[in-house]
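Data availability (excerpt). The following record was deposited with the supplementary files.
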Amino acid sequence: MSSIQDLYLKGKALLEKAANPPLEAKIILLKSLGISEESFYTYPNRSVSEAQSLEYLNMVSKRAEGMPLAYIVEEKEFWSIPFRVCPGVLIPRPETELLVEKVLELSSRGKELIVDLGTGAGNIAVSLARELPAAEIVATDVSQKALEVAVENAARQKVSSIRFEKGSLFEPLEKLRLQEKCDIIVSNPPYVSEREWQSLQDEVRLYEPEEALVAGRTGLEFIKSLIKGAPSFLKPGGYLCLEIGYGQKEKALSLFGDDWDDLRSYEDLSGIPRVITAQM
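Predicted structure:
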């Protein structure tokens, strides 16, 4: 019968090609055994059942084959909040936290309507709901699976101010008759081009949902639709906040017409232009 330490060492060896074998082996072990980090360090010689050992090694094997760690442990932290994720739902990225930061800077911190288009796991909407308890938030997605996960994440964080609606782009807002009623529209849209998709690392291309990442031939198709459609739903003085991809800043900015004001772009921690905000 293996011990916690035995299993950890086996996992670390199997993950030798991973970015951080010791850390990933430990994360998977804690998840598979349902133990805390404190127990991992305090009771390294505690015996583990054969069934638990097999479960752990199976999870490690999936990671060694390239499955994203977040899908294996069914969780990804965003805005210091643990979000449930699963195959078919885009894994939240740390750079998207900049989008949340900018929405918070633009928020009145009072009663306002914020729309999150393409909510995915709900990480943007739930993070904003936690920070802006007075706000009403509408979160949409075309994927039923994504919406189910987002609803679960909202429930886990005990936020009830989010209304989840299924639909593409502005369809849910039309159904809810939100024309000229939104204070902020925020979106982390698909912005990968079809050509870029083919060159992405296997961990992304083989496991994450293509429809949540690929916008079309240029990668700007969804962004263009957001910029075109948002004015019908924003209040005068309302804001559109969106994430963009690497090298898209100038082309994305050129899509805004003269009816937009206070057009700004912001860089992420890597110095890459990542977020654009614009006011009606």
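Summary of structural features: The chain has two domains: 4-65, 76-279.
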